[in-house]
């Protein structure tokens, strides 16, 4: 209850997000309850997402937090070898927080077998998690790992993981092509389109999202022709969130011209605008 109350205070604007991060970084390594640990790690991931959206504001602080999250999670992986469930939770967190060069190089070494972590075995799911992370940050070997794993794992799960890895790469032309495929390629199953939508604009790739933000909002009527199931995923993943007053104005304009949109999409636009107001307020309150 205390952890949730603290996070609610961040969301409600009563305390700065930096305060939550500071308290969590000191105290979450002491947490042994799996559910509470998962809750706090999820909040830290969301906090990192907010910081990414605030870029370029507080850029140095965001880099500092990114490195600290990776270092703490790796340390906890090392310290929890006797509790495989706890260690695995921390290792999954480490993969997600590996967003700087040393951590990404370490993930690459783990795939190569050049280094190991006692108690951790890289099953197929974990290999894909690492490969997706390496591609998301376009490391030098990421394309090779993706091609190799595609050949070795042609299962439905493997195909979807490969799409997520490919789509998340920071490549503007590729992202525009994928956005067009999401809209026009009827040969691509909805399950794969949903994977692509979720992976298209990671939070740290804000500039790529901004590049097509107006297009995505201008074409909402066309996207809605694909039906309610499609739009449920679209609204969750592709309504632009950039933590800026400009985007609040952009969303307001879309809401004001939404006469032909479904009530579900209008509500999603309103919730996105509310989220943007929240992030802008967080940015103003942040004093690291």
Structure description:
The protein has helices spanning 2-11, 17-27, 34-54, 59-79, 84-97, 101-112, 124-136, 142-152, 156-168, 172-184, 190-199, 206-218, 220-224, 228-237, 245-256, 263-285. With 288 residues, the protein is mainly alpha-helical. Helix 4 (59-79) runs antiparallel to helix 5 (84-97). It is globular, with a radius of gyration of 20 Å. The two termini are 25 Å apart. The mean pLDDT is 96.
Question: How many strand elements?
Answer: 0
Which class best fits the helix and strand makeup? mainly alpha
Shape: globular
Order of helices and strands: HHHHHHHHHHHHHHHH
Strand fraction equals under 5%
The DSSP helix count reads 16
C-alpha-based Rg, rounded: 20 Å
Contiguous uncertain segments of 5+ residues: none
Which oligomeric state applies?
Answer: single chain
- Report, as a whole number of angstroms, the end-to-end distance: 25 Å
Task: Give the secondary structure arrangement, pairings included.
Blueprint: H1 2-11, H2 17-27, H3 34-54, H4 59-79, H5 84-97, H6 101-112, H7 124-136, H8 142-152, H9 156-168, H10 172-184, H11 190-199, H12 206-218, H13 220-224, H14 228-237, H15 245-256, H16 263-285
Helix pairs in contact: 3-4, 3-5, 3-16, 4-5, 6-7, 7-8, 7-9, 8-9, 9-11, 11-14, 14-16, 15-16
Structure, briefly:
The protein has helices at 2-11, 17-27, 34-54, 59-79, 84-97, 101-112, 124-136, 142-152, 156-168, 172-184, 190-199, 206-218, 220-224, 228-237, 245-256, 263-285.
């Amino acid at each position: 209850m205390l952890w949730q109350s603290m996070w609610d205070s961040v969301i409600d604007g009563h305390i700065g997000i930096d305060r939550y991060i500071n308290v969590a970084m000191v105290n979450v390594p002491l947490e042994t309850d799996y559910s509470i640990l998962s809750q706090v790690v999820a909040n830290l991931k969301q906090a990192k997402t907010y910081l990414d959206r605030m870029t370029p504001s507080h850029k140095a602080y965001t880099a500092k937090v990114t490195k600290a999250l990776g270092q703490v999670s790796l340390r906890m992986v090392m310290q929890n070898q006797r509790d495989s469930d706890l260690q695995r939770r921390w290792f999954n967190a480490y993969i997600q927080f590996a967003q700087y060069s040393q951590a990404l190089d370490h993930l690459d070494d783990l795939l190569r077998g050049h280094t190991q972590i006692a108690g951790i075995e890289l099953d197929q799911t974990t290999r894909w998690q690492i490969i997706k992370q390496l591609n998301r940050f376009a490391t030098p070997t990421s394309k090779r790992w993706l091609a190799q794993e595609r050949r070795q794992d042609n299962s439905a799960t493997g195909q979807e993981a490969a799409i997520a890895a490919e789509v998340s790469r920071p490549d503007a032309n590729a992202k525009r092509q994928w956005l067009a495929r999401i809209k026009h390629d009827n040969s691509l199953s909805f399950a794969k389109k949903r994977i692509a939508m979720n992976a298209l604009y990671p939070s740290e790739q804000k500039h790529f999202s901004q590049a097509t933000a107006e297009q995505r909002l201008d074409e909402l009527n066309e996207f809605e022709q694909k039906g309610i199931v499609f739009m449920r995923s679209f609204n969750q993943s592709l309504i632009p969130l950039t933590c800026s007053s400009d985007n609040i104005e952009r969303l307001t304009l879309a809401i004001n011209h939404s006469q032909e949109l479904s009530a579900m999409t209008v509500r999603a636009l309103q919730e996105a605008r509310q989220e943007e107001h929240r992030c802008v307020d967080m940015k103003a309150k942040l004093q690291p």
